[in-house]
Amino acid sequence: MASGDDDDPIIEEIDVYLAKSLADKLYLFQYPVRPSTMTYDDVDHLSAKIKPKQQRVELEMAINTMSPNYCRSKGEQIALNVDGTTCDETSTYSVKMMDKQTFSSIQATTNTSRYAAAVFRKGELHITPLTGILQMRPSFSYLDKADNKTREKEAANEGGDSSQDEADEEAKAITVRFARLESEQARQRRIQSYEFLQKKQAEEPWVHLHYHGVKDSRSEHERQYLFCQSVDASQNSELVKTPKEYLMMLMPPLAEEKVVKPVGPSNVLSMAQLRTLPLGEQVKTLMKNVKVMPFANLMGLLASGTDSTAVLRCIQQVALLVQGNWVVKSDVLYPKNTCSAHSGVPAEVLCRGRDFVMWRFTLERSVMRKEIASIIKLPPEDVKEFLEHVAAPRINRGWEFLLPTDVDFIKKHPDVAHRQHMLWLGIQSKLEKVFNFSKEDFMPKNCPQPEPVHVSGEQRLQMAQERAQESQLSLQKALDARRAESSVPLRQKPVSDREDEPMDTSSSPSSSVLNGSVNGYPGAISLGFDHTNGNGGSPTNMPSPELQEFVLKTFRKHFVLTLNELKRLFNLHLASIPAGQHVLHSFSDHMLQDAILLCHCKQIMVPFPAQSTAASDEQKVFGLWETGEDFDKHRRLLYEVFTKNYRVRRNVIQARLAQEFGDVSKADIDRLLHECCKSHSGMWYLKGTIQS
User: Fold this and answer.
1) Measured in Å, how far apart are the chain's first and last C-alpha atoms?
2) Where are the compositionally biased (Basic and acidic residues) regions (predicted)?
3) pTM for the whole structure
C-alpha cells in the first residue's frame, strides 16, 4: 500500500476464459413453483422435446404413484376423465392412472446477452454465454382433453337424425366471398395479432431429444465443453481498456425511454388529467370515448362551475344532436387518411356510412341492420361497429337507440335544436346523392316528423314568464290542498276521497304531515315537484293499468316500501321488459304515488329524527293497507305503532297487539315482523327505514 487512502488492495488475479463450444445451445432451466432444495435430478424423465426457434421446451416426468403423498383415487379419476374407459395408443395415461406430468417452458427474458454460466477450476474462470433462460411450469393440457371429451359426449347425446342433418346441409345456400386486396396497415395488424402468432408457433415442428441424468457419463462429457478448449496464450487478447471504460463495458448505462404521455385517455378516463386540458379538448375526449351522451351528463363530468354556453359551443364542433342527445361526429372517430381496423375501408367512406346510420336514428327509434347494410354497402363488421356506438340490439326490433329522447334539452335550447335540424337537412341531401334514396322511403307512417319551428328570443322570454306563472299557481293550489289534508289522521283518510284531495307529491323529508306536525316540527309544510313528466302531477292524469298492476303485485310481496325502493324496483321491471312491449316509457313521482293510493296502500307517517340523513324518497314510507284477509288489522296496528317512533322493540309491539286483540300467537308476531320490518341492534324498523 503506497498510501493510507488505498484501502482496497489486490489479493489475487484470476484469468477469465470465454468458452464458445456450447454458446448456441446452452439453456438455463428454472423451476419457480418448486423449492431449490427439492430438485428433479432423481426423477425419471420420460421424454423431452424442443422448438428451437421459439425456445420452447416440454418435459415429461414420472410421478411416484407409490408415495404415501399420492392420492390413488384422484389419479384414477383424472385418468378416467382424460382417456375414458378405452385404452389404446392415443391414451395419455396407459396404466389408467395419472402416473406422469408435463412441464412446459416460458421465456424468463428475451435478451440473454448479459447472462452466462461460469465454472471455476484451478484458478481459472470459464464463462459460456446463455442461449436462453426458461422457466418450467406444470402444464395442464390433460384438463383440456377431458373437457373436449365431455363436450363430444354432450354433442353426441344432443345430435338428431343424421339424414335430416344432411338434408338441412343440402338446403343451405352457399355464400361466396372474394378476398379483398389487403392494405399494408391491415397486413401489419394481422401479423401482430394473437391468432397469427399462435398459428406461426404451431407451424414449427417439435424436435425430440434424449434426456441424460446429472450423473450420466454423457452429461459428464458434455460438461467438459463448459471449459475453454484452447488456452494458448498467443490467442489471448490483452485488456487495453482503462478501468472506467472497462466498467462501462460491464455495466453500460440504460437508454432512457421517452415516455409520451397521452393527450387524452382511450378507454379509462383520468378525470384529474382530463381537466388540465382546454375545455374544447375535454369535450372532444369525452365524446370520443363515450360516443353518445345527454347534455346533462356531459355537464356532470366537467368541472363544477363550467359555463354551459361555452360547453354548447364546444359540443357542436365535435358532435351532432340525435333525439336530443349528442353523438360524436364521424370525422372525429375516423380522421382523414385513416382506414377501418376491420376491413381497411378508407375513413371518407366510413364517415358517409356512419352519418347515414345516425341520420336514420333522427327519424325513428329502431333500425334494421340488414337494411342499413344493403344501402351503405360496407362490410358487416363496420356496420356493426356503427350501430354499437349508438344503439343496442333488441329481439324482433332490430337496433334501438341507446338513450331515451331528451325532450328537456330540446325545450330548453330550441335554437340549438333548430340549428342541428338544419345541419341534418344538409347532411341528408348529400347522403341522398351518394346512396340514391329519398327521405320518404324511411319516414315512419305512424309517426310523422313535425316541422321545426323557429322561436325568437322574445317568444322564449314570453314562454318562460308563462311557465313561471303556471308554476306559481300550481304551488298555491298544492299548499291549499296540503293545509286541508294535514288535519286528516292516517287511519281515517279513505282512498275514495282522492278526487278532492291531491296526493302529497313532496320530495322533501319534511313532507310527511301527521296531526299538523312534520317530523316533529309543528306546522312545517314543504312541497317539491317532479318535472320528469310534464303532466305527471295532475290529479286527472290517472296512472296506467300496467303501473297499478305492478304496484299491487309489489306491495303484496313486500308489504312495506319506501318511495325510493319502489322506484328502483319499477325501473328494474321496465328494464326487464323488451323494448316496445310496454306502454309506459317514463313515469313521475306523482303517478307512482297515485298508483299506490289506488292499490289499497297508505302512507305511514314515520317520525324520523331531525338529524336523519335519509333522502326525501327514503322518508316516504307506504304500507299495504287492505288485502281482504283477517290479518290486515295486525298490520294496520303495527303501522300505528310506527307513527309514534321510527324504531320499536319487539316487546312493545307484542304488548300493543295483546292489548288490542288479546292473546296473539308467537307465529303471528313473527309473521308480522317478517313481512313488514327489519331488525338491527335489538330494535325493529319498518323496511327501508334503518338509519346508519
Assistant:
1) 78
2) 147-156
3) 0.36
